[in-house]
Specification:
Length: about 525
């Protein structure tokens, strides 16, 4: 190991989270054992072992912060850890380590297979810390998407309520939530007794606890407050809300304990008539819109208005959830008004078919050259990496033949190892991005196709089609003063600009006569700075 700038006192830091981010990571004890051997083999003086079981996806780890403080006070000047992602998976903690290393507060970070010094190129550490941070962000996104998909398939994503359990031997296509053979019938009997009026809620609780074996999942006594919460839980008649307080209700595929009528009778008995009663539908336009005032999610609710003439009117209103600011004064908007706003947006992004064909063809031509260029660059980078690998082999042979001293060998090996790692990182990053243009082409084609006929499909489509179209455009919208607003960097802004430019071009052709005017149109497309830039 390079002795220049070597630390004198090391802290051995080991971390493992119980969350899925660290599922494949070695245990804390294993990390400590292996790192202790590594310290002994390399002559590192470890003054303290610090460990914690906490995720690094956000700042605020107590032990990590204590370690940084010790280093700042001069109690230690080096860190020994399993991998760099043990220190940080978020940009705040990653920046703390990187800055301390650059300013020689930390003189050496030694991991299993790599060293980091103040004199190193900061790019490598930044790349590795960035990859650790991106991993946790992708994991979070994938997890949320997976839970949402599971909810939409009819399976409650969170822990199963008492009386049910997740199928421990589930195979593809089999049930995910099944009856708990020991508790289902007991709870079902108690709920039905209350709904029928044969027992009051307290009587059902006492009988269930004393005579029928009503216990929790750990076979302990259930609190009476939990029993009342169960009677008010729509899951027991087949419905659930996900995410919590989102206003989005789903019909579950699990076997209900009671009917909806029995559930509603129970609510009347409890004095909660009309509360916690799920809708028989999920709201079409929730989940993609934020409040334009406080940034909280926009939710929906169903309202019933009975008129003096005996008629009943049903309304759906969208409003701020008030989860971030309970005092937010954002106005409510009726669903019909919201749909008028969506139609207004779709009108502004109308794309003519001739432009769609021209744009896709132009992208293909431009990217054909890019393919060849990237192919050549990739070959060059592979050759550089392989050449560095051969240099390491040559260096080893020179040491074996006695042509280099041990010190010269170690110094040169460390330099080549760093260079090899740098080349490998660059090569991996390049190859990962090598197909970006293909993704861009497909995304552009999908976006332009959407703009071409989405207005007609939305106006004439059923509820499912309207929801689908809204989901495709509503990834970054805000609601302010009953108006839907397209936020900065939203893909719709680009479509709106393109549509406006196309409208100006078409005014020169009144009426538009295809295919006679097709060549003239394509010439105007090619000479438009707005269209070329977009």
């Amino acid at each position: 190991m390079n002795q220049e700038g070597r630390a004198n006192k090391y802290i051995l830091y080991a971390r493992k989270s119980s969350e899925s981010e660290d599922r494949q990571m070695a245990s804390i004890d294993s990390q400590i054992d292996e790192l202790s051997k590594l310290a002994k083999d390399n002559g590192l003086r470890v003054i303290e072992v610090m460990q914690e079981s906490m995720s690094a996806k956000a700042p605020g780890r107590k032990v990590f912060n204590e370690m940084i403080e010790k280093i700042k006070k001069g109690e230690a000047d080096g860190i020994l850890c399993w991998k760099l992602n043990r220190l940080a998976r978020n940009p705040v903690d990653g920046g703390t380590v990187s800055w301390a290393l650059q300013n020689e507060i930390i003189k050496h970070v030694f991991t299993f297979g790599r060293s980091y010094y103040p004199t190193d190129n900061v790019l490598m550490m930044a790349v590795e810390l960035g990859m650790a941070n991106q991993f946790i962000r992708d994991l979070s996104t994938d997890t949320k998407r997976g839970l949402r998909n599971k909810a939409e398939r009819g399976w409650y994503p969170n822990g199963s309520p008492l009386g049910y359990r997740h199928n421990p031997i589930k195979l593809k296509g089999e049930k995910e939530i099944i009856k708990d053979p020991e508790k289902f019938e007991v709870i079902q009997k108690m709920l039905k007794m209350v709904a029928s009026g044969k027992l009051t809620p307290p009587e059902a609780y006492r009988k269930g606890t004393a005579e029928w074996g009503f216990t929790n999942k750990h076979n302990q006594k259930v609190a009476i407050s939990s029993w009342y919460a169960m009677m008010n839980n729509p899951f027991y008649y087949g419905y659930y809300e996900f995410p919590s307080d989102s206003g989005q209700w789903f019909k579950g595929k699990h076997e209900p304990m009671i009917t909806q009528a029995e559930f509603e009778k129970t609510q009347i008995i409890l004095g909660r008539r009309g509360t916690t009663r799920p809708r028989k539908y999920s709201f079409k336009y929730t989940g993609a819109v934020r409040c334009g005032i406080c940034e909280a999610s926009v939710v929906a609710e169903h309202k019933v208005k009975k008129c003096k003439n005996g008629k009943t009117h049903y309304y759906i209103y969208y409003h701020c959830s008030h989860r971030l600011d309970p005092k937010c004064d954002q106005k409510v908007v009726e669903e019909k008004k919201l749909e008028e706003e969506i139609i207004g947006i779709l009108k502004r992004i109308k794309i003519h078919p001739t432009f769609l064909d021209w744009a896709i063809e132009k992208l293909r031509k431009e990217n054909k050259e890019e393919i060849e260029e990237k192919k050549q660059l990739s070959e060059n980078r592979k050759k550089e990496y392989e050449a560095c690998d051969r240099k390491l082999d040559t260096l080893l042979n020179m040491r074996i033949n006695g042509e280099l001293s041990e010190g010269e060998f170690i110094t040169k090996k460390d330099e080549l190892t760093k260079e090899k790692a740098r080349l490998k990182a660059n090569l991996d990053a390049f190859e990962n991005n090598s197909t970006h243009w293909i993704d861009q082409l497909e995304e552009t084609k999908e976006l332009l196709n959407l703009a071409q006929d989405s207005l007609d499909k939305f106006k004439n489509g059923d509820e499912a089609k309207r929801k689908e179209i809204f989901r495709s455009i509503g990834s970054n919208l805000s609601l302010s003063e009953k108006k839907l607003n397209i936020r900065a960097n939203n893909k719709l802004i680009g479509l709106e600009i393109i549509s406006s430019e196309l409208s100006s071009i078409f005014k020169k052709f009144e009426p538009l006569n295809l295919p006679e005017d097709k060549e003239k149109l394509e010439l105007l497309y090619s000479s438009s700075p707005v269209l070329l830039r977009r």
